[in-house]
Amino acid sequence: MITPLISEAFINKVIIPTIIDIEASGFGSESYPIEVGVVTYLSQRYCRLIKPQPDWSHWSEEAEQLHGISRALLLEKGVRAAQVCAELNELLIGQTVYSDGWVVDYPWLIKLFYVAQMEMKFTLSPLENILTEQQMEKWHDTQKSVCDNTQIERHRASNDAVMIQSVFMQTQHLSGSSSIQF
Fold it and tell me: Which side of the chain, N or C, has fewer Cβ within a 10 Å radius?
């Protein structure tokens, strides 16, 4: 009898992906990151407000109403970009990290690491790269259910990361699919 190289138990093992979310000063090319939140595959949470650079002046009142973070709060409590980047690299080194808003989160991360003059030591990928078709079909209803059944304050970076990870795991369970190690 030939023993398979990969056991069925391994294939069905569920590994939770690391998720990142970023809140920003507004929308469009002049916007910049103001808060970054992460939840790792080990359920470690990370969240930092980011002190704006002197030349980061774009501010959207509409975005502030959405996330509830004022520019004054960032100036008072925000952390320098270099510190945030060093902490992210330490937490995420060598990992692939997933974002449900890659098209905006990636440019904001690039902007953050550029001003810190640091290299990202992790890879950012779109969440869609690891979602099955069945998960995508169940995503919206599952996200609504998670939001309705929890007290998670939306549009804060680490809370959104936790919510996204939770929805990923629930849609994975509901669709009967399992994930490979991320």
Answer: N
